Amino acid sequence: xxxxxxxxxxxxxxxxxxxxxxxxxxxxxxxxxxxxxxxxxxxxxxxxxxxxxxxxxxxxxxxxxxxxxxxxxxxxxxxxxxxxxxxxxxxxxxxxxxxxxxxxxxxxxxxxxxxxxxxxxxxxxxxxxxxxxxxxxxxxxxxxxxxxxxxxxxxxxxxxxxxxxxxxxxxxxxxxxxxxxxxxxxxxxxxxxxxxxxxxxxxxxxxxxxxxxxxxxxxxxxxxxxxxxxxxxxxxxxxxxxxxxxxxxxxxxxxxxxxxxxxxxxxxxxxxxxxxxxxxxxxxxxxxxxxxxxxxxxxxxxxxxxxxxxx
Length: 311
Description:
Blueprint (H helix, E strand, L loop, with lengths): L2 E5 L2 H12 L4 E5 L4 E3 L4 E3 L2 H8 L4 E2 L7 H8 L5 E5 L7 H4 L6 E5 L11 H7 L4 E8 L9 E8 L6 H25 L31 H10 L6 E5 L2 E13 L13 E4 L4 E10 L5 E2 H7 L14
Helix pairs in contact: 1-2, 1-6, 5-7
């Protein structure tokens, strides 16, 4: 079965790599256009395009995949199946009708929960206790198609989005292989999504990355862990931006929100008078460090405070 693989992110590249290692016939890869990155603003390919180049697979990077010229180019490959993971654009009906066995999307949530752009981040930010991976047949609507397979996993206490992502990738590799095999043999039964259980995982905005120390401790912890390692939540200390990367619950403590209450651990008072213990962080212009290294390097003392903005 001839597969056209659609994807852009590093996660998507890992799924594609697994399919190639298991000898699936990916004869065309479609990814987002090259983007400017870094201080030099050099144009770089997406991880999925890079994979295509390494494996000498034909690759297209259209700005709009739904225009006639692109549709014709894809049609020339006579696709049996589209397999999409983190491509970041919606495909129109004309495209979706090209493959003889349909178009499948792999999504990192238990649909219909967390449809949309940031399901792993939102699972932690929203305080969910479980999530997973779903494969489904695509239609013209966002993440609403009939489900083929679904596998779940528990979200661990104080787990970061990066840690959860690594576990979901393993599930994703397995479910991708199983899904394609089932479609190839016809051995599957689809399940319609229950729209009454739907929720959405909207894209992370710049504004919500800022830590508001007036929030409750659990809200702050979920935001820190849910946005780690990227895009990262942040606060300010002595005018420097500090990206916070891992946190857990502390104790009950009276005081002004944002105040650091101990020099041994980086423990900060939240708006509900519970504390947040910061374990990992990255000061502006520096590498990731443990909180003790930050305390020593920046001479943090009890009574100092974090601020949501520079002063």
